Amino acid sequence: MEHAVLTGEYELSIDEKGRLLIPADLRRVINPDRDGTAFFITVTAQRKPCLYPEKYFERLVSQKQQELTPDADTVIFDQMYFALAARVEPDAQGRILVPAKTLRRTNTGREITLVGMRNRLELWNRSDWDAQVEVLMQSGKSV
After folding, report:
1. DSSP assignment of the chain
2. Model pTM?
3. What tens digit of pLDDT does each residue of 94-117 get?
4. Confidence bin at 142 (pLDDT 50/70/90)
5. Which CATH number is correct for 9-139, 3.40.30.10, 3.40.1550.20, 3.40.50.880, 3.40.50.300?
């Protein structure tokens, strides 16, 4: 396996200092040699803060070719995923510091659901995630 498979949903709070505890279940899945010890936090096109394991994010960067004159879509992608990204290192308790700018730009709030999305973790406002799950459940579609 070339990267951690991140799954599940975790109801968490971002504390008054902007720290978010990465649950122990998720920390156990992340292999420091394969995935790194830190995360890169960025913002998705859907305005969701998103955490990528450090080495996975670095592989994304190396796979993304740098063009001398990038097209408009490439510029937008680079602005969203790279310009807004920040490297965050968990402390001894497994907490990361979520940049205040990221919280402000995404209106995430402090009561969140951390959602495993295979190769990344998305931070959802808790009530927005509950509403999204309801939409998914009512769609009746299966994979």
Report:
1. --S--B--EEEEE--TTSEEEPPHHHHHH--HHHH-S-EEEEE-TTS-EEEEEHHHHHHHHHHSPPPSS--HHHHHHHIIIIIT-EEE---TTSEEE--HHHHHHHT--SEEEEEE-BS-EEEEEHHHHHHHHHHHHHH----
2. 0.89
3. 999 999 999 999 999 999 999 999
4. low
5. 3.40.1550.20
